[in-house]
Design brief:
Length: about 325
């Protein structure tokens, strides 16, 4: 029988949550298409993580355990994935849309001459046809991808809940014939970024600004005064950080900080899934955006369709006045 193969990832000794999200996707596809669920766990001393995945939706888990897999290298992981595909007969291979997923998934697809879908946020089967959904045009449209099989896909972290039920999976070792000498890349070291002074995860109120601010000076003129009036912290979307307007520790989202303040104000932020992943757990969300169709309004408790350059200063004055 055909199967769906999850390629899991271990980070700092534990499976990433996104691997359990892949388990949710794989179980959904198994229900819709009758495929078996298989998983691949790669690591050094990773038996416990393999068992954890087997118990939480991973199905039959192949464990590749060895020093070479203690840290990610594309060549070694690719060999292991091919061995797992051969053993499982998988015609659907799911990676998380993470830096190592971006790196290795296209290599696997190219080597198999398989279809490739990147950054999908959902999947399903309609009869024999697989359907993947991707968000395009800044979240305004959902594209339906109808790939042939075999297909390799990367799935957006945070797009579905991690698998929480229990399941009767199993773990078996998988031998992969690869040595460090055969690999064109080798692991050197992990460099951890220096911790900055901002820990948004502890803030009760966050006022975040997006690309629409247009420059760093607008953060100081519009966003910071409002945050200070409310006694909160400043946050930012990724383009703001990529443009160098704010340091990385201010970034909220899948590749920034995950926050859950009592109040989150999103000013001129469209609401791309990668931003939502970082702030949708906030207790109360106010979004200010000129575009009534912006996806941020889907998660907002209060939506203000207006120009942030008018609303934010007015709010700052009103809050300052109210505080006396
Ligand atoms: C792998 C990956 C990881 C990512 N990680 C993150 C992440 O951690 N965090 C993150 O934020 N993004 C992340 N992104 C980027 C994400 O996909 C979006 O591109 C980004 O969030 C968009 O930022 P934005 O909302 O500031 O800009 P835009 O999408 O350009 O939106 C600007 C919004 O401002 C509105 N606007 C314009 N002018 C005004 C005005 N005067 N008043 C009110 N509204 C106005 C517009 O209507 C628009 O909705 C990631 C992307 C990838 C591929």
């Amino acid at each position: 029988m055909a199967s769906v193969l999850i390629v899991s990832e271990i980070q700092k000794g534990s499976l990433r949550e996104s691997s359990y999200e892949l388990a949710s996707f794989a179980q959904k596809l198994a229900g819709a298409s009758g495929r078996d669920v298989k998983s691949l766990v790669l690591g050094s001393g990773a038996q416990g993580e393999a068992e954890a995945l087997a118990a939480r939706g991973g199905g039959e888990v192949y464990l590749v355990d060895g020093e070479l897999f203690a840290n990610y290298t594309a060549d070694a992981v690719q060999k292991a994935v091919h061995a797992a595909i051969e053993k499982s007969g998988a015609d659907v291979v799911l990676f998380s849309n993470t830096p190592s997923g971006w790196d290795v998934a296209p290599r696997v697809a190219a080597a198999l001459d398989a279809a490739y879908v990147s950054d999908a946020f959902d999947l399903d089967a309609e009869g024999d046809q697989l359907v993947f959904l991707r968000r395009v045009f800044n979240g305004k449209l959902d594209a339906r991808m109808l790939p042939s099989v075999p297909v390799v896909a990367t799935m957006q972290p945070g797009a579905t809940a991690p698998f929480e039920g229990s399941s009767d999976g199993s773990v078996s070792p998988l031998d992969v014939a690869v040595s460090a000498d055969e690999c064109g890349t080798k692991f050197v070291e992990v460099k951890t970024a220096e911790a900055g002074g901002v820990d948004l995860s502890k803030a009760d109120i966050i006022v975040s600004g997006g690309r629409s601010l247009g420059g760093p000076e607008k953060f100081e003129e519009v966003i910071r005064p409002l945050a200070e009036a409310l006694g909160g912290a400043v946050g930012a979307s990724r383009p703001v950080v990529d443009a160098g307007w704010m340091p990385h520790e201010y970034q909220v989202g899948s590749s920034g900080q995950i926050v859950s303040p009592k109040l989150y104000l999103a000013c001129g932020i469209s609401g791309a899934i990668q931003h939502l992943v970082g702030m949708k757990g906030s207790n109360f969300i106010i979004a200010i955006n000129k575009d009534a169709d912006a996806p941020i309004f889907e998660v907002a408790d209060v939506g203000v369709v207006a120009d942030l350059f008018e609303v934010c200063p007015a709010l700052t004055s009103a809050v300052t006045e109210a505080k006396g």
